[in-house]
Every structure is written in C-alpha cells, then in structure tokens.
Amino acid sequence: PVSVPADIRFSIWISFFEIYNELLYDLLEPPSQQRKRQTLRLCEDQNGNPYVKDLNWIHVQDAEEAWKLLKVGRKNQSFASTHLNQNSSRSHSIFSIRILHLQGEGDIIPKISELSLCDLAGSERCKDQKSGERLKEAGNINTSLHTLGRCIAALRQNQQNR
C-alpha cells in the first residue's frame, strides 16, 4: 500500500463533451425541450493551454458516480443509423477525469492530474450519403479524422528528427 501524508487529500472532477459537426456540446448538460443545446467555445488560458469555456466539471466521490455520469453523457450524445451501423456515434467525445491534489488546511493545489479518454466517430464514405445532414456529418468526421492523422504524423516526424 502507498502511504499518503495526512495533510494531502484528493478531489476528483469529471467532464464530458462531444464535437459534432465541428461544434462543441456539453454532454453533462441536461437536455431541454424548450431550447437548443448550447454550443461551447474552445479557448486558451494565459499559458496558451486549450480549454472548453463553460464546460461543466462535476465533483464525484467514487468510480461509481463517474460511471453514472459517463452513462448519462452517452445518452445525450449524437447517434444515427448508417450503412455500417444501426446506432453509430456521429461525434467525437471526450470524457475527462481531473484529480486535484489538495494539501494543508488552505487546500493548496500543488498538482493537478488529468486523463482524457477520446471516442472518435467512425469514418464513412461520403458517396454513400445522398445529401443533407448525414452528408455534412460524414464530411466533417472525415475532415477531422484526416486532421488528427496529420497531427499524429507530425508528432512522429518530430520524434524521428530530434
């Protein structure tokens, strides 16, 4: 067992959002029939680190609470029937777990750890889509997957050229 000093505690926070047709949506925001889902913005903090503005971060006590939030968010995600899958995710989703290391009586935060799990939407041939919303979705998914592939290739290239 790992021994942790008595003055150190941990606080765990969860967020879950999707990228659908190049827009960001909070999957932990309760859906409302009265209004459209609020789109979120990608911003940078003063150090140049990206973050999603107005994204809900929910404090959890244990893994069971985090699991429940994951299931709630999955219900709010954008799904549709495609040629390959009856219930296909039409968005990329990012589920994040943030652990704050709290120290002392004033709850000083000397360290923050974060793990983000990404579920990428499946690629689809645009010619299989006739028109409308499915064609737009397929085009956006394929463009973002292509961009991700280029980012990974650039990272690999940079590692090889050290």
Describe the overall structure:
The protein is an alpha+beta fold and 162 residues long. The protein has two domains: 8-121, Kinesin motor domain (Kinesin, 3-Layer(aba) Sandwich), CATH 3.40.850; 123-161. 27% of the residues lie in helices and 36% in strands. It is built from two helices and nine strands, in the order βββββαββββα. It has helices spanning 63-76, 132-160, and strands spanning 8-20, 23-26, 39-44, 50-53, 58-60, 79-80, 88-89, 92-103, 108-119. The strands form two sheets. Strands 1, 2, 3, 4, 5, 8 and 9 form a seven-stranded antiparallel β-sheet that branches. The longest helix is centred in the C-terminal third of the chain and has 29 residues, at 132-160. It is globular and about 60 Å long. The mean pLDDT is 83.
